[in-house]
Automatic annotation (TrEMBL):
Homomultimer. Associates with the dally/ magu complex. Coiled coil: none annotated. GO terms for cellular component: presynaptic membrane; synaptic vesicle membrane. The keyword Zinc does not apply. It is a multi-pass membrane protein. InterPro entries: TVP18/Ca-channel_flower. GO terms for molecular function: calcium channel activity. This is Calcium channel flower. Keywords: Calcium, Calcium channel, Calcium transport, Cell projection, Cytoplasmic vesicle, Ion channel, Ion transport, Membrane, Transmembrane, Transmembrane helix, Transport. The chain crosses the membrane at residues 20-45, 52-77, 89-122. It is found in: Cytoplasmic vesicle, Secretory vesicle, Synaptic vesicle membrane; Presynaptic cell membrane.
Length: 165
């Protein structure tokens, strides 16, 4: 058994790990966002409300069973589940940044950090599996300048430079 999931792109433990980090991180972000709403600063109040909403977006996408009594969550979760991993990574990393910019304190940093970590895990899934050792050695030997193998250039396809005469 190779350890790859049903689609063969990423290991099962990475998929479930990203879902687990997303669920736990979203719940932590909502809790810390609520605690941040108790401050007297207007920016930190806004950041706390934003973090509550960002945590809800992540939890409703990663663990729709936590929000099963809200009608649209099942449709939203299915929509997000059908997206490729790079889009989920962009969504979660993009959700994490504004809260930190509004109020850079410890609770916002940790709450948004968990959401960002979920995005990083989905980004790792989007990169895919690393090549085998033999494939990597063969690729490195074929592109070594001055080596025995010919140098490959996919950027210009070994075209001659334009002459000025």
């Amino acid at each position: 058994m190779s350890g790859a999931g049903p689609d063969g792109e990423s290991p099962w433990w990475l998929k479930y790990g990203a879902r687990g980090v997303g669920t736990a991180g979203g719940l932590i972000a909502m809790g810390l966002g609520f605690l941040n709403c108790l401050t007297l600063s207007a920016y930190c109040l806004g950041a706390g409300i934003y973090q509550l909403l960002a945590g809800f977006v992540v939890v409703s996408a990663e663990a729709p069973c936590c929000c099963m009594f809200i009608d649209f969550v099942q449709l939203y979760s299915k929509f997000v589940e059908d997206r490729p991993p790079w889009q989920k990574a962009a969504l979660y990393c993009g959700l994490a940044i504004p809260g930190i910019c509004l109020c850079p304190n410890l609770s916002i940093f940790f709450g948004s950090g968990f959401i960002f970590l979920t995005g990083v895990l989905y980004g790792m899934m989007a990169l895919g599996k690393k090549g085998s050792r033999n494939d990597m050695i063969a690729a490195a030997q074929s592109t070594v300048p001055g080596g025995n193998a010919t140098m490959k250039s996919t950027l210009v396809n070994m075209e001659a430079p334009l002459s000025t005469s």
